[in-house]
Design brief:
Length: 93
């Protein structure tokens, strides 16, 4: 995640944090667990292969389906952002 964005979110710029952004555009594919599988696999890869311990994302607070998916993958809401978005964090110690 760029240092400027870490500042905006209130994180130390020295911290190594990855950010992810994903989009499943075909509505016929929603609700089939594809997002959960994709994100879980990505987090496993980032942690086991690259040693990443923290990943952030922001999501529209009205996108309850996405929020549920992220929570299933271990993300938690850390704070509200502008425009009704939520900052979510996943971390391994």
């Amino acid at each position: 995640m760029p240092k400027e964005q870490l500042k905006v979110y209130g994180y130390p710029v020295e911290e190594s944090i990855y950010g992810i952004d994903q989009f499943i555009g075909e509505t016929g594919l929603w609700g089939k667990g594809i997002g959960t599988q994709m994100i879980s696999g990505l987090l496993k890869y980032l942690n086991s292969r690259l040693g990443v311990n923290k990943v952030m994302l922001d999501v529209n607070g009205t996108n309850l389906q996405a929020i549920k998916c992220y929570e299933k993958c271990g993300f938690r809401v850390v704070k509200g952002l502008e425009d009704n978005h939520l900052l979510m964090e996943w971390g391994k110690s």
